[in-house]
């Protein structure tokens, strides 16, 4: 795509918004991820994540606070050759992405999977996920792209004829953007028996009350919709069944986070063994272990200074220390102190505990035999004093796999910001002017960009004086998310010229419109090329299910 249009001397178009100024970038080509700007909803005081609801988030900061999503920027330096969506803050959050980044650095196996519900034509918002799958594949990951046709049929009521039509279109765009079908896997939920069998097994670990709490299901929710949820859980874990347990990342929008939390829970529930840290023979909660660890560190240090034997730190000593130092409110300490008092003079020794969760008797006996060195064997767990937690976890996983278990690793996820609609507000497939379909005629794409809302000032004079509001501009998002591609220098130039008053909206939209038309033309040419080769791919494009 060419980028030779000079937009700095063009006349400004009136802004269709009245919002406060956005702050300048603090680093090259980096979008704000604090929830301010075009995504903010005035007066919004909570975040609701609904996988089948509206694709918008009022305040991205609250996702960190309320749902435990971590900021991606904090681990950006650990990601080899990060994608431009990562560098620019479009990918703003993650859940446990560190194992995936480590696998990339160490050239070890990992996987990426994401799915598409074929309810309409693929558009530029879907391109974010397409790009994330393709980039992970290019970094060496096993890539999976799936068509969520069971979900489309059950949750959205599409007929199988409609689903077949849209499914092919999603596949063509994914291929046209660079997905390698020879190195990756494409499938439909309805045609993948392994996924359906796994969904059945995972369904044993979930119940109606839980699904109702997470998704708001009630007595009016049909069973097929609920079944589609466990099918999606199976999709998320499928790369670890199709090959082997390995770090797996699911690129999604933040509205899909409920699926990720449930999938991580189900992955843990199916495990034969749990691995935790412990200090004595009794069971303790995570909060209790933290208190015991703090007390032990203090008392063990005192013992070392007096040349006392390590075993002289006993459970009753820990209980007394907690009473004296009160490192937490009494109600938080009470249960820990009761357990410590009951253990009395038992020595406190740090160890790693392997718990029997769902293991067969044979698997538990095999685990006992596999733990070498000093250990203590109890009815439902084994304590090892020589293995690290990581080594114990890997040993437990291998025993599980040897005895028919899944051995799942918790799936990871990355989250991208939603694109603002070209008309302002949400980008919606039901509002054609708000989005650009990847199937739009290039001239139509050009016209939509030319008609888009901007973050410009009321007049060209004010724009030159005050600068534009790029942080609130759907047209600027087009540059940052798509049109600048991997060229951070170009994206930065557009931003700085805008907020500096050099770039006016008329010329900026003309340049964006031309780039969009070029992109659509190139993309559709590649789709046509792949359309002639679809029969060669190993994927079911036509469903043989009942038509209704």
TrEMBL record:
The keyword Coiled coil applies. Residues 1-42 are annotated as: Disordered. It is found in: Cytoplasm. InterPro entries: aa-tRNA-synth_Ic, Rossmann-like_a/b/a_fold, Trp-tRNA-ligase, Tryptophan-tRNA-ligase_arc. Residues 1-24 have a biased composition (Basic and acidic residues). Residues 509-547 form a coiled coil. Gene3D superfamilies: HUPs, Tyrosyl-Transfer RNA Synthetase. PANTHER family: TRYPTOPHAN--TRNA LIGASE (PTHR10055:SF5), TRYPTOPHANYL-TRNA SYNTHETASE (PTHR10055). It catalyses: tRNA(Trp) + L-tryptophan + ATP = L-tryptophyl-tRNA(Trp) + AMP + diphosphate + H(+). A motif ('HIGH' region) lies at residues 118-126. The gene is trpS. Keywords: Aminoacyl-tRNA synthetase, ATP-binding, Coiled coil, Cytoplasm, Ligase, Nucleotide-binding, Protein biosynthesis. GO terms for molecular function: ATP binding; tryptophan-tRNA ligase activity. Belongs to the class-I aminoacyl-tRNA synthetase family. This is Tryptophan--tRNA ligase. HAMAP family: Trp_tRNA_synth_A. It holds the Pfam family tRNA-synt_1b. SUPFAM superfamilies: Nucleotidylyl transferase (SSF52374). It comes from Natranaeroarchaeum sulfidigenes. Its EC number is 6.1.1.2. GO terms for biological process: tryptophanyl-tRNA aminoacylation. The keyword ATP-binding applies. One of its GO terms (cellular component) is cytoplasm. A motif ('KMSKS' region) lies at residues 426-430. Catalyzes the attachment of tryptophan to tRNA(Trp).
């Amino acid at each position: 795509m060419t980028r030779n249009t000079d937009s700095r001397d063009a006349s400004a178009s009136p802004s269709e918004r009245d919002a406060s100024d956005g702050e300048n970038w603090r680093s090259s080509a980096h979008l704000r991820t604090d929830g301010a700007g075009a995504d903010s909803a005035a007066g919004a005081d909570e975040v609701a994540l609904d996988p089948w609801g509206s694709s918008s988030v009022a305040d991205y900061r609250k996702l960190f606070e309320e749902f435990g999503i971590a900021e991606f920027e904090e681990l950006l330096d650990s990601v080899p050759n990060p994608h431009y969506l990562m560098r620019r803050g479009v990918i703003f959050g993650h859940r446990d992405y560190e194992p995936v980044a480590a696998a990339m650095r160490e050239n070890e196996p990992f996987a990426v999977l994401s799915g598409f519900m074929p309810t309409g034509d693929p558009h530029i918002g879907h391109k974010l996920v397409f790009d994330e799958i393709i980039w992970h594949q290019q970094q060496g990951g096993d890539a999976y792209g799936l068509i969520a046709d069971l979900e489309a049929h059950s949750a959205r009521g599409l007929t199988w004829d409609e689903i077949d039509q849209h499914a092919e279109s999603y596949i063509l765009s994914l291929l046209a953007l660079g997905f390698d079908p020879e190195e990756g896997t494409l499938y439909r939920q309805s045609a993948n028996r392994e996924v359906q069998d796994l969904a059945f097994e995972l369904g044993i670990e979930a119940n109606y009350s839980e699904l109702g709490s997470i998704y708001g299901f009630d007595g009016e929710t049909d069973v097929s919709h609920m079944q589609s949820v466990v099918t999606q859980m199976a999709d998320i874990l499928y790369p670890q069944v199709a090959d082997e347990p390995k770090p797996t990342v699911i690129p999604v929008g933040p509205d899909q986070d409920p699926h990720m939390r449930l999938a991580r829970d189900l992955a843990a529930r199916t495990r034969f063994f749990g691995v935790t840290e412990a200090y004595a023979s009794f069971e303790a909660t995570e909060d209790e272990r933290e208190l015991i660890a703090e007390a032990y560190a203090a008392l063990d240090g005192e013992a070392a200074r007096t040349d006392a034997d390590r075993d002289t730190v006993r459970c009753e000593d820990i209980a007394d220390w907690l009473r004296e130092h009160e490192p937490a409110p009494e109600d938080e300490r009470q249960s820990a102190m009761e357990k410590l008092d009951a253990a009395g003079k038992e020595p406190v020794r740090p160890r790693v505990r392997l718990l029997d969760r769902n293991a067969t008797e044979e698997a538990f006996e095999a685990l006992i035999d596999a733990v070498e060195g000093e250990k203590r064997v109890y009815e439902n767990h084994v304590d090892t004093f020589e293995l690290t937690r990581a080594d114990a976890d890997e040993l437990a996983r291998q025993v599980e796999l040897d005895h028919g278990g899944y051995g799942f690793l918790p799936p990871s996820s990355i989250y991208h910001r939603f694109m603002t609609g070209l008309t302002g507000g949400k980008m919606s497939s039901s509002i054609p002017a708000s989005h650009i379909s990847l199937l739009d005629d290039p001239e139509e794409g050009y016209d939509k960009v030319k008609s888009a809302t901007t973050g410009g000032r009321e007049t060209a004079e004010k724009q030159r004086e005050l600068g534009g509001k790029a942080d609130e501009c759907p047209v600027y998002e087009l540059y940052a998310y798509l049109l600048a591609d991997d060229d951070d220098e170009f994206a930065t130039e557009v931003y700085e010229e805008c907020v500096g008053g050099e770039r006016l909206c008329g010329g900026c939209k003309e340049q964006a419109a031309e780039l969009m038309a070029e992109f659509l033309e190139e993309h559709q040419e590649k789709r046509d090329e792949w359309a002639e080769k679809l029969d060669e791919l190993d994927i079911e494009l036509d469903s043989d299910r009942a038509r209704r």
